[in-house]
Amino acid sequence: MQGNVRPENMERITTEALAQAFIDEQIAQLRQQIGDKKVLLALSGGVDSSVVAALLIKAVGQQLVCVHVNHGLLRKGEPEQVIEVFRNQMNANLVYVDAVDRFLDKLAGVAEPEKKRKIIGAEFIRVFEEEARKQDGIEFLAQGTIYPDILESDGVKAHHNVGGLPEDLQFELVEPLKLLFKDEVRVVGKTLGLPDNMVYRQPFPGPGLGVRCLGAITRDRLEAVRESDAILREEFAKNGLEGKVWQYFTAVPDFRSVGVKDGKRTFAYPVIIRAVNTTDAMTATVENVPFELLQHITARITAEVANVNRVLFDLTPKPSATIEWE
Ligand code: XMP
What we know:
By secondary structure, the protein is an alpha/beta fold. The chain has helices at about 15-35, 45-60, 80-90, 100-105, 115-135, 145-150, 180-190, 195-200, 220-240, 290-305, and strands at about 40, 65-70, 95-100, 140, 170-175, 245-250, 255-260, 265-275, 285, 310-315. It has 2 domains: about 15-200, Rossmann fold; about 210-315, GMP Synthetase, Chain A, domain 3 (2-Layer Sandwich), CATH 3.30.300.10. It has a 5-stranded parallel sheet, sandwiched between helices. The model has no long low-confidence stretch (mean pLDDT about 95). Bound molecules: xanthosine-5'-monophosphate (XMP).
């Protein structure tokens, strides 16, 4: 199989024709590697795991078993889109696991960001392990590892790595994207027929909305994050900012402030909007979002999202802030 070093003469995949050549070559290699055995894939619906899934569906069809774990920390509409695209349109063998209560119960009362991340990561492995044990005859584990993951082996993107599985579940790895850069993965995904909003989506952290529902996660604030994020994304798309701004999202802190609605006093949460640009996520600048658009988004969020009475815009570059709040 291919090694872990990108050959110097490997052409950058910039066109659908080059992507098609890559796809054809990978399909042949995957068929040779996998034969008539079964492959397991944790399918989050992010760019990399989605492209791996689409490639493997083409190569080995029903021998691929995709497991989509809904941990309750995904953005609005994401689990539904995974089911629609992969099960309904691509006829994938997809196991959908509703683990929302399980994750939220484990996270209840935990306020420390790194502890939250650890719980989400560990619980994910546990749920995935349980599903893996229900399957017979799995010999391979597919992963959406891409070249930057190999280059920065400290592994910021731990969500790709289901390496915490116990000894008896150590399958042979299938990593068809491991020599590709992100922009190449997107061209391959597009060529495989995945929808634009899946292929060109902004980066989203593995722990998902869990690190944007600040402090100890509660269901009311988690819904406020999810609903306000959906409004922000909708408005950015309508106003030509989708694809232009590198990363944009909302966060909801764990304190309330006084407000007023319909002549009555409210005591509700603020929503914080963050919109940043960067090339490597090490430093970031704040997008100059038109003030009228921010006012419009504020009006929508305060009118449509429950338990929210204020909207704030984060003006801080990285440094001194990080991109996420936790
Ligand atoms: P920060 O907040 O460190 O974020 O400036 C830099 C980039 O990394 C993403 N990020 C994460 N991605 N798991 C991930 O997969 C994480 O725990 C995590 N924390 C931050 C963040 O969204 C930004 O793109």
